[in-house]
């Protein structure tokens, strides 16, 4: 499709991205059949998502549904376009990195396709590990209600795990089992990172995972939440760095028990 001045629609986007990038819409959520995700072929990263949203939820007048597309953009592009007719702060995505475009004909295809092109380039990105070469340690939560990690490690010493932080190969991952255990249970090493992996259910959403190898299993009584609180950790709700004193204690125990 040529980059004409006609108003952009869902159909015009479908045609353009298939022709230019070989992208076909992915429908990841059965509850939202009109949501369409588009990814780069090489690294599987999203560069656009089309959704049908009630106008009122976008801060617009009316309760009828309208198609929108979210695309990645530079800060300069976002600043330039936000507030102009047809452009809105990103809906349900990081507003620092994305912008919403109405697909009701108010934005011409030439402008939108240029934005899609920019988004496609941005989505190529650089692997996060390029910004850091020295390995570090992470405390990562694991909820036994959703996944039987103990059974997984009985079957294999290397498993896939959700990656939501800037992990690089060689980082140490201490897995903290949530209630009813509430303790650090495993010491692992990241042996592969940034693996594309799409999974969504009512409890977990993953776009990429890492492969971790178990190095040591701690007794459940050693590093419970009471012990962690002595090192300044009151709760573990997401991946976080580890205080030096706790890291030393964990390393000493793993070396002693090796």
Account of the 3D structure:
The chain has 258 residues and is an alpha+beta fold. Helix content is 24%, strand content 30%. It is built from six helices and ten strands, in the order H-E-E-E-H-E-E-H-E-H-E-E-E-E-H-H. It has helices at 10-21, 75-81, 109-124, 149-155, 225-229, 244-257; strands at 36-39, 46-54, 65-72, 87-89, 98-102, 137-142, 158-162, 172-177, 183-200, 205-217. The protein has a five-stranded antiparallel β-sheet with strand order 1-2-3-5-4, with helices on one face. Strands 6-8-9-10-7 form a five-stranded mixed β-sheet.
Secondary structure layout plus pairing:
Elements: H1 10-21, E1 36-39, E2 46-54, E3 65-72, H2 75-81, E4 87-89, E5 98-102, H3 109-124, E6 137-142, H4 149-155, E7 158-162, E8 172-177, E9 183-200, E10 205-217, H5 225-229, H6 244-257
Summarize the structure.
The protein has 258 residues and is α+β, with helices and mostly antiparallel strands.
Q: What descriptive keywords fit this protein?
A:
alpha+beta, five-stranded antiparallel beta sheet, elongated
Q: What is the gyration radius calculated from CA atoms?
A: 22 Å
| Global structural class | alpha+beta
Mean pLDDT: 86
Order of helices and strands: HEEEHEEHEHEEEEHH
The geometry reads as: elongated
Number of strands: 10
Taken as a percent bin, the fraction of beta residues is: 25-35%
Quaternary structure state of the chains depicted: single chain
Percent range of helical residues: 10-25%
Lateral arrangement of strands in the main beta sheet: 1-2-3-5-4
Biggest β-sheet strands, sense, barrel: 5 strands, antiparallel
Terminal residue distance:
62 Å
Determine the number of helices (DSSP H or I, runs of at least 4 residues).
Answer: 6
Low-confidence stretches: none
């Amino acid at each position: 499709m040529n980059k004409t001045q006609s108003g952009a629609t869902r159909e015009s986007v479908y045609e353009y991205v298939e022709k230019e990038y070989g992208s076909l819409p992915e429908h990841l959520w059965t509850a939202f059949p009109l949501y369409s995700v588009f990814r780069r072929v090489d690294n599987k990263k999203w560069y656009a998502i089309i959704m049908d949203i009630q106008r009122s939820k976008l801060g617009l007048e009316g309760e009828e549904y309208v198609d929108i597309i979210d695309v990645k953009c530079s800060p300069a592009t976002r600043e330039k376009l936000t507030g102009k007719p047809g452009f809105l702060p990103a809906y349900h995505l990081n507003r620092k990195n994305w912008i919403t475009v109405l697909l009701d004909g108010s934005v011409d295809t030439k402008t939108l396709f240029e934005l899609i092109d920019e988004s496609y380039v941005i989505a190529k990105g650089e692997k996060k590990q390029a910004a850091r070469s020295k390995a570090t340690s992470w405390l990562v939560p694991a909820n036994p209600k959703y996944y039987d990690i103990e059974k997984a490690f009985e079957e294999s010493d290397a498993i896939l795990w959700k990656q939501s932080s800037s992990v690089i190969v060689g980082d140490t991952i201490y897995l903290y089992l949530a209630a009813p255990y509430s303790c650090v249970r495993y010491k692992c090493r990241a042996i592969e990172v940034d693996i594309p992996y799409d999974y969504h259910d009512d409890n977990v959403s993953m776009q990429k995972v890492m492969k971790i190898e178990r190095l040591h299993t701690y007794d459940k009584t050693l590093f419970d939440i009471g012990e962690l609180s002595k090192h300044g950790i009151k709760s573990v709700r997401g991946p976080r760095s580890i205080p030096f004193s706790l890291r030393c204690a964990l390393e000493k125990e793993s070396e002693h028990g090796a």
